[in-house]
Amino acid sequence: MPELPEVEIFKRYLDATSLHQPIEGVEVRNAYILKKTSARELARRLKKRGFESSQRHGKHLFVRTDGGFWLRFHFGMTGSLQYFKNNEQVPRHARVVFVFANNHRLAFDDQRQFGGIDLVRDVDEFLKKHALGPDALEIDLWEFRKILRKCHGVVKSVLLNQRIIAGIGNLYADEILFRVRMHPATAVSRLNDKALTRIFRAIGYVLRKAIAAKADANQMPQSWLLPHRGKDGKCPRCGTRLKSANIGGRTAWFCPRCQKPAVHKSGL
DNA sequence: CTAGATGTTAAGGT
DNA sequence: CACCTTAACATCTA
User: Which of A2, A33, A79, A155 could form a disulfide with A115 if both were Cys (CB 3.0 to 4.6 A apart)?
Assistant: First the structure.
């Protein structure tokens, strides 16, 4: 479930398994994943090279090679990384497999193929070209408020917009709004600085805590929305049956009692 | 069989 | 032009 915390976990996984090893080859099992490069170019750029460091921005993971350019991973809805020994079974939906000289491989597994891999020369250039906003864990309060004060639209859509802030996806947007007890369809224009500050703090808290839980829903607190989201879930605070609504084309889950739509107030 | 699922983006509308 | 919404992408599960 690759939102910012999941991608951060993938980054740590890659750092712990796949750095500083000569790459013998790249197996492209499904070229659909390669949107702006080719199997041939990947092989040419990576062979006999190694991954030397990585950095994350929002939901994008950039891996620097000792050839001087970067590999970019985006995990879409179902992407993940799997490091495994040569004699072990290749993951079911492995689309690209990096073969290392040490008898191990790293697979980019992606059932639905909404993810992708690219080569980029410069990370900042990529971020600028795609107009990505600042990373949700890098931004500071003042910048956050400054950006949000200029936003129109409903709060959930704004949090999901990667060009405003990068890294928050559907599940964590719901979690953040649950934490501040705000209805997902609240207009951002009616939020005062105090409300924006509370959202900012909730973003940092939820994302950091999710990372600490290894982005594993089973390790997140029962007091969160996430373990109860969907199905016949009940609000962990008040026990009310959770409600869903389609907001900005995505399903929002929230507690209709704790997260009432603001009517006249401009804050919380 | 149909609907919906964690994401992004092109295309259409206002 | 700026902004918002919808559909499409590929695949699996409820």
Answer: A79
pTM over 0.85: yes
Q: What is the pLDDT at residue A268?
A: 54
Task: List C-alpha distances in Å: A124 to A37, A56, A69, A93, A130.
Answer: 19, 12, 12, 31, 10
Q: b or e along A140-176 (b: 16 or more beta carbons within 10 Å of the residue's beta carbon)? A: eeeebbebbeebeebbbbbbbebebbbbbbbbbbbbb
Residues with CB under 7 A from strand B: A 1-3, 58-59, 74, 76-78, 112, 114, 130, 160, 162, 169-171, 244, 249-251
- Residue A236 annotated as catalytic: no
Is A160 within 8 Å of A188 (Cβ atoms)? no
- Give nearest nucleotide to A231 (CA–C1'): C14
| Element at A43 (helix H, strand E) | helix A39-46
Q: Once rounded to an integer, what is the mean pLDDT over residues A25-45?
A: 94
Among candidate residues A56, A59, A95, A229, the one labeled active-site is A59
Rg (CA), chain A: 20
Q: Would strands A79-85 and A243-247 be described as parallel, antiparallel, or unpaired?
A: unpaired
